[in-house]
């Protein structure tokens, strides 16, 4: 702890903490809402960029005053070999790592890096003043709505942290003030009682419904888990496939279910939210009506009697009942080749049949 304090005081003018092997980096990641770490190289060719990044980082707290628990750190790759190996591997290039609430959210190793800091700090919560404005949100994505008396309250601060965690998976909206029973609205709440409501995307409404959060809003872990269970899994359709495939950094993991048995979807979402939250950057979890993708499943040698089944990038999970075994399912998510390989993947099927699919939409 003393070394951390000394580092902070030593670099306070620049707003940057020089992290070393004795800085307890794991502790810093867990205790602070946002941690930005720049792994840099010394030398004439990097001097100008390092100075530019110092100036960018120095403005972060000025531009975003609400971020109370923020640590901006730098690691000298020339001297801190242990930290280099532990956090980015044996990579000799500069890298920017951003952690939020202990979880890595961004890793960049290309120039320029400073713009990604501001992208991460942008507020994902959109305010609205009347119910009609909610129609302007994208209904192909989940939406979580918060009702608070004002912004400056601890419950909203927790809501904001959770919104940042899930901004890539869900939309967030907020309305401030008191609401009265005579207001023409389906969203009512008692005065002085913050309320959070989840509204599924239009496709997922077939298997899920709007739900009011019943837990303690001041409990970050509880609200974060609830929101992850609701938002981390989306419904895959023929129409939104291309949009869900935009993120090339993650594999598409699909639960194909029989629409006559949607109860399994709840189990799937609970397992993802409880045990696989740390894999959200690696995998894009979805559910899909197996009968609507019957042509693809038939190519893999399956029919409706094989539902439910899980597929990812051309591999199928060997035994669906093993999803209740955290180790086996996680091994499949981390490396789909744990499963059974098939010649054709969903990506190839959608590509070769896109004209036919579009004509049916």
UniProtKB/TrEMBL annotation:
PANTHER family (UniProt xref): ENDOPLASMIC RETICULUM RESIDENT PROTEIN 44
Residue stretches in coiled coil: none
Record field: transmembrane: none
Entry protein name: Thioredoxin domain-containing protein
Gene Ontology annotations for the cellular component aspect, listed alphabetically: endoplasmic reticulum membrane; endoplasmic reticulum-Golgi intermediate compartment
Signal sequence bounds: none
Pfam families, sorted: Thioredoxin_6
Gene Ontology biological process terms in this record: protein folding
